[in-house]
Amino acid sequence: MQRIGLAVVLALSLTIAPFIAVAQQSGSVHRIGFLGARTPSETERFLEAFRQGLSELGWVEGKNITIEYRFAENKTERLPDLAAELLGRHKVEIVVAEGAAVRVVQQLTKTIPIVMAEVTAPVEQGFVQSLAQPGGNTTGSTFTPVEVAGKRLELLKEIVPKLSRVAVLWDPRTLSTALAWKEVQLPARQLRVQLHSLEVKSPDDLDRAFKEATRARVDAVMQAVGGGTFKRTADLAVKSRLPSIGGHRAFAESGGLVTYGADVADLFRRAARYVDKILKGAKPADLPVEQPTKFELVINLKTAKALGLTIPQSVLGRADHVIE
Fold this sequence. Notes:
Layout (H helix, E strand, L loop, with lengths): L1 E3 L9 E3 L3 H6 L4 E7 L3 H17 L8 E7 L7 H9 L6 E5 L1 H9 L5 E6 L18 E5 L5 H12 L5 E6 L4 H9 L1 H7 L2 E6 L6 H10 L4 E4 L6 H10 L4 E3 L2 H5 L4 E5 L1 H16 L15 E6 H7 L5 H4 L4 E3 L1
């Protein structure tokens, strides 16, 4: 179990193209695009894992590759302009992208390779035809399978044994969170936990949602909405005296009680492998989409203390990271 200090984390995106193999033989420098939905500080640790993965494969930034970074700063409306800039003025050969950024880049190009670094349910969202045979110009790694939503509910039950009612923050307009809401239904019935739906379409909805959660006398909150809401959700959960759980490590680092989900840094290291293969001539359509194999449980003991909660040793002993 590793103990860490508070840090900021989140997700991101990149790009690469078909004619790269020929270019590599001529010793030219390849241009990769990174399109992230979040802020630079939120994605820096993941980008470092990506760069390290590239370096291990012989690709060094400033030597034989350059990376054009663009960040939407949690404002998805900026993504189309940023993507157009990467594909147009900067003429990148590959784009590495996360979440909503994938769809935006796909709408602009059918030929430039797109590597997904952190995307939930890419088949259901229409990004690829199937995991085994993605087709088109997009491949990469998926984020945490939606089935993991049930595991998060089990963790809450271990931490709060008398758990009987959980508020789920989700956005019905976003397929990934809608799937998470759907997948948690069966585990809830099995655990005899009643779910309370709280739709959150923007950070402005959070205050209303927590007031409703308080009126409904819920015992805990499950976070299933975007990264731009992490800090506010964590703060409101503590203020409302409610244990909270999410899927991104960044949620615990923002003050949420617990997170359980895929190791995002590992997904970015995998993105480097896809970039390497494409630069060496592989086609995205022929590279199967990989599912996560490394998951991490993160517990924020500062938040537990603020809530007056004692995390059971059975849970604490399984933690990959503990924030104190």
